[in-house]
Amino acid sequence: MATVEDHYERHLAPVYLWMAGGFADAIARGEKDLDAIPCETTKNLTAVDLGAGFGLHAIPLARRGYQVLAVDSSALLLEELQNHANGLPIVSVVGDLLSFPQHLKTRADLILCMGDTLTHLKHADDVLRLFSLAAEWLAPTGTFVATLRDYASPLLGPARFIPVRSDEHRIHTCFLEYQSDIVMVHDILHERVDSTWRQRVSAYPKLRLSPEWITQSLKQCGFSVRVEAAFNGMLRVVALR
């Protein structure tokens, strides 16, 4: 079993932009995500994008006037972000999500943890620590937003096989294997090389976090919380200071 960091760096990061449908389509989806949350457009605001990847949300945030701290464990994905940043005010940091306060000079107006990134943390205690850090490092009227999948309610039978994307050169499928407190995500990638299909498989754990547990944990940190349906079967958690 690979760690989350190894799984992304060796298996997913090289094809992640392809998985997202290409840069233009991905950024358009990031814009939609921001349109659905309380996202100010005033200049000189500060945002933290945890699990920023290739800039799905960091780039639209910077275009809206935010100074963005983009944190991710993948140097390859952050390099892709900087290749598309075109002078936007984005600082990229390769590191652990919980290390973000080390790179802030002021409190943030917005902290994002999108795209199921919360479930990548190793333990529920790490999630609690992240919530506590968000409460500490947000401005008095700041907002914390996360999107994630509800793995607390397991899929059954064939529903555990999830097609991600396919074209004439690649086929990507996920298989979910549920355990008591985690779900093992098996990423199965077929790539066509000349006339031959080659298969690569890697698996990593995600936490099974229920919306109820997340809501209660954020409230204990002083947030008011709402949970709502987001795009592509995700849940959106909006926590206000």
SSE topology:
Layout: H1 4-12, H2 16-19, H3 23-35, E1 45-50, H4 58-63, E2 66-72, H5 75-85, E3 90-94, E4 108-113, H6 124-137, E5 138-148, E6 161-166, E7 170-178, E8 182-193, E9 196-207, H7 211-220, E10 224-229, E11 235-240
Parallel strand pairs: 1-2, 1-4, 2-3, 4-5
Antiparallel strand pairs: 5-11, 6-7, 7-8, 8-9, 10-11
Strand order of the largest sheet: 3-2-1-4-5-11-10
> In percent, how much strand structure appears in the residues?
35-45%
For the termini, the CA-CA separation is 38 Å
**H-E string:** HHHEHEHEEHEEEEEHEE
CATH hierarchy class name of the largest domain: Alpha Beta
Helix content: 25-40%
Structural class: alpha/beta
Number of helices: 7
Low-confidence stretches: none
Rg calc: 18 Å
Total domain count: 2
Shape field: globular
Q: Briefly note the CATH topology name of the largest domain.
A: Rossmann fold
Rounded mean pLDDT score: 95
**Count of distinct strands:** 11
